[in-house]
Amino acid sequence: MSDWWVYENWRTVPGGEAIVHNGSCPWCNHGRGIHWKRRKTSDENGRWHGPYPTENDALAQAKRLRRRETRFCKYCRRPSTQVIISCPGCGQPMSKHPKKAEYICENPECRVISVKVTRHYMRVLREGNIKLKGLR
After folding, report:
1. Percent helix, strand, coil in the chain (nearest 5)?
2. Are residues 113 and 86 in the same domain?
C-alpha cells in the first residue's frame, strides 16, 4: 500500500508551494525528505504533512494549506516509463532493450534492427546501415 505526503515549502516560490509526493519518491522518503540522514533537520524551508492513504486525500490537504502553487511532484508523477514505439519497417510494437536506451524489433522478417529515440532525432539501424530522421 502506498502512502502520500505533502511538502509545504515557503522558500522556493513567493507565497509558497504545496507539493504532493508518493511515499516511495526519493525526494519524499516517506516524509523524511532528502536530508533524512542528518541528525538534526529543521523546518527552515518547509515541512512534511502526512501520511495520507490516497493521493486525493493528500491533494485535499495541499489545497487546504492555501499556498500560491499546489501541484504533484514532477518526479513521482512523471509520465509512465513504459513507452510503446512502433517499428518504422513493419509497424509492430518494439521491445525496450534491457540495458540500452534503444528499442528492438523482434520481427525476423523486418530489416529494422533497433531504433534509438532522443530529444532531437530518431536513429534507425537497419541491416548494416544507419538512417537519421529529424524530429523537428
Report:
1. 5, 35, 60
2. yes
